[in-house]
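Workshop exercise sheet. Pairs work together: one partner reads the sequence aloud, the other fills in the structure field after running the prediction. Swap roles for the next sheet.
Pair: D.N. / O.F.
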Amino acid sequence: MANTKKGGSDSADRSKLKVWLDGRLMNYYDAKVPILTHSLQYGSGMFEGIRAYETEKGTAIFRLKDHVKRFFRTAKIYQIDLGYSESAIEKAIIECVVQSRLSSCYIRPFAFYNSDRVGLATHGTDVSVYVAAVPFGAYYGKGRDSGIRCKTTTWRRINSEILPVEAKGSGNYLNSLMAHKEAIRSGFDEAIMLSAQGRIAEGPAENIFLYMNDYLMTPDYSADILIGITRDSIIEIARSIGIEVLEVEMHKEELYTADEVFFTGTAAEITPIVNVDGVDVGDGKPGKITKRLAREYTDVVLGKNSRFAKWLTYI
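Structure field:
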């Protein structure tokens, strides 16, 4: 197995970090809620994941407005009144990054029911909104460059008859957690989830792309995927350099016959998949298209591609 221990959030002392809770900036460890908070009991929270990168022009948040818009779409789907405008949340995010003195980080806006009563009912319950920014490295460690091994899990991706798949609801990710655990227990680095119809869907927290027959392909809406912002970015970047992209229904066996496979996501960025179910993808190494798109994506988030400068919010 490749050395793909997840990096992610820095475990260093967070006492100097600032967070935003219900309109107030405070120290990380001063933000507290009761242990019986509704969203901890029932998974009724909602969130976003956003990255900021250190560029030559200073810290830049990647696709801030798009992430905040999706945060509000999730709230609408789950019928949660956040009590703040999109611009207020954007300002809170920027304030957290600035006050925490972070040049590169992962940002987590989170909304939850702050009632500590026992029971599912949320009527009349206040909603709290929290924003934190933490140091963050490569989500898959060295696997971001060398590639990871994946298992197609027996746990199927939820669909809209079960839960709203286009919302980033906390409870949705129990489905992802079970898939991830199965893959790890089986000796793999990560899971690939299929839809209820057995089509390729996504990773536990990533979208997936296949390159074969000179086309870059990714599952369409029919696979009940979360429409990722990094996914959208890669589609636009690929088309800008002349790679044709198809959003299509794909069968499981295409994972074995594809020339290249990779994950995309805010945390995962562009992570090559070099083996699926014990079968090497291509020659078992990251492919040239994957590596090229990873370079292009890095240039974009670091402000080195003026064509996509609109995606960066400098602070």
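Discussion prompt: The first strand starts at residue 18 and ends at 21. What would you look at next?
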